[in-house]
Each structure stands twice: as structure tokens, then as C-alpha cells.
Protein: Amino acid transporter transmembrane domain-containing protein
Organism: Aureobasidium subglaciale
Amino acid sequence: MSSTPSIQEKGLHVGTQPGDPEKLEGVTEDFEVFKQTEDGVNFRTVGWPMATVIFLKTIFALGVLSIPSAMYSLGAVGGALSVIGWQALNTYTAVLQGDFRNNHPRCHSIADMAGVVGGPIMKELTGAMFIVAYVILTGSGIVGVSIGINALSHHAACSVWWAVLATFFVAAAASVRKFHQIGWLTWIGFASIFIAVFVLVIAVTTRDRPAAAPQTGDYEFGFYAIAYPTFAAGMVASCTIFVSGAGTSAMLPVISEMKNPRDYRKALFICMSIVTAAYLSFSLIVYRWCGKWVASPSLGSAGQTIKMVCYGIALPSLVVSACLYLHVAAKYIFVRLLRDSPHLQSNTFTHWATWLSCTFSLAAISFVLAEAVPIFDYLLSLAGSICFAPLAISLPAWLWIYDHKSWRKGSVGQKVGFWLHALFIPLGIFVMIGGTYGVVVQIKEAYASGQIGSAFSCADNSNST
């Protein structure tokens, strides 16, 4: 069991519903990781509107670029149901995580929460998965940025050099210490990706046939209401859709920097409502007009000119997305190293050296990973299966069970609720094993067919389904 005391362990009860701020404000402040302070660095500066936009930018960008190609594997009906089902589940498990964090406000990250329910070993294992997950997502963001620069430059240089440049910009942006300070970037990032995808949607609906399809003669369009994929292809597509909204563990460090952590649910529900509606509408339209010829990332689906326009608009968003993923991973290590030390909120050499070392070392690892597996969909699916399945499905259920042990022997309704939450644990394990198998099979086939060249090659790694 973790040595970190919770509010309940101190004899102070806080329910799972947002409580009276006047009653909770003084209680939770004693347990918060970051204190409200005028001396040193005050991290508690994020209001719920800014938190909403940070959440939106964390969740939205990469998913909207990858889901249209996943639709081809699952079909329009299966893809739409998958989007609705996974985003509903992601929203609910995000509620479970946020409620647990606010009941145990000493928890800064999902690893801290795992330590409360599973002890030191589970904390270390979860922390490792958390870092790996967001390093993979940072790598996918670097791939997206390098593809965008490639498109805008007409391949004027080797794509590896563009990836190096992308990594530098991402690391520089992520090195800003507070979520509040990068908040204005999230506004720009969300607006840019939304506008870029809107331009793409309009562009694909004006073409007689998809840009990547043969422009004369008969061709197979590849739009299916119901598709019958192989197990591997279906799992990769499903994991791609799942991971597009599964990064909710990145929201937890933001809660620790909110002025009022009890506003978390408000920001979450607004964020996930917008994300689900956008994913469903944009991906169905792009798949309906592009069929099997949809590109991955999807911004390249309407021809070279529109591809350049879309990437020109979306480039700030791609940089900001990777920046947020890197910032979240680096902040976890930073807090872990300096927690309860005077350097955590002081402008000391140790403070800055630790923070910059965390940021730039993880950026370097992300770059190597991006060049080793340079196809956008596969990186996202890999993150979803290996890391986010246990982090966003199994672990949140365990957190709920920990705080609701009495339900196991309670009323009939409580018993049903208890065992329904318990089913999430094997579901997460199935997605982890099945999704990882599917990604490995798909990557092996991509290398064998030449779709992926050798590591650190200069090939353009955007592709059509």
C-alpha cells in the first residue's frame, strides 16, 4: 500500500461528486501537489475554460487525422459505432480517474493513483507505461509534423532532417514549465487543426473521384457500410479509434494545476462532447468521399494542392499536440524527482536543470521511435494497445473498485455496478494483447511489402489505405 495518505485516511470524507467549494477548498489544499503560493513558482493558475481547451488539444488532433483510414477496415457502420462506443467509454473512465484524483489529491499522475490501489510495484509499472505511451504519441506527432513540412517543401530535403527540425520545435515548446503558459498555444493549435480538417472535408466533396485513385477508367472505390476485416486489421483499426480519445490520463496533471480542481468534470464533458461529434462527422464524410483511397494522415486525401493548404494551416496544431504529449511525460518525471523538495516550486539551478533534462531527453527518444516506426496509424495503434488499454480501461475500473469496496456486498444495484466495473479489467487486457498482436502483424506486412522502408530513410511516410 502506498505511504501517501488520502483525505479518507485522514478521516476527512470527500464524495465522488463535486462538493461545496467552501467546505473542500481548505481541506484539499493541504494535500495538493502544488500549493497556491506567491513565493517561487505558482503552478495553480489554470481555470476551467483553459483546461477545456488543453483537454481538447490533447485529445483531438491526432485522432481526427487517423480515424478516416480506420473506417476503411471497419466499414461506415462499424466505424461509426466504434467511434461512439470508444469515446463514451473513454469519457466514463476519465470521470473515474478525475473523481479518484479529487478524492486523493496527493495524486499528481495516473502512476500515483496506481500506487494507492496497488502499492509501489504497480506505481512503477504504471509510471513506465505512462511515459512510454506519451513518448510514442510524441513520436507520432513528430511524424505528422515532418510529413507536413515535407508536403510544404515539395520534399526539398530528406524527411529525417525535417523530423530533426520538428523534434527541436516540439522540445522547445514543451520546455515551458506551466500548462497555463502554453495555454495560448492550445487555442491556436485547436483552431488550426479544426480549420484544416474543415477545408479538407469541403475539398474532398468537390472532387469527382479521390485524388489518390486512378483518374481515368474504372477503379474500386472501397466504401463499405459493413466491412469484414481480418482480426489483425480490425484490432489495429479499433485501437486507432480507441486511442484517439484515450489520452485522458494526460488530464490528471492538469487538474493539479487548476485553480479549482473540482471544475474538472465541467471541462471534461465539454471537451469529449466536441471531440466525439467532430470525430464522427469529419471521419464519415472523408471516408464517404475517399473510400479506400483515404490518406494517413487524412490531410493528404484531397490532392497535392489541398494537402499543402491543409498542412500549412494544421502545422501549428501538430507541433502543439506533440508539445503537450512531451510536456505531460516530462512533467511526470520532473514531479517524481523533485516532489516534496524545495526545488519543485523554486527558480533554482536544480529546478531548471531537471526540467530541461526531462524534456529534451524524452524528445530525443521520441525522435528515434518516430524514425523506427514511421507510419502514423501504426504508432497510434501501438500506443493504444500496449499502454492505453491498461491505463484507460483496466486501471480506472480498479480505482473505482478501491473507493467502492462496500458495493460488492451492498444492494442488488450496487452489486451489479461493482461487477460491471470489474469487467473493464479483462476488457483492457484483451485490447492490450489483441491490439499489440494486430499492430505487430501489420508492421511486419508493411516492411515486407516495402510500405515502410529502412529506419531513418528519406522516404515520405504518408500513405493511402
Notes: The chain has one domain: 45-464. The first strand starts at residue 295 and ends at 296.
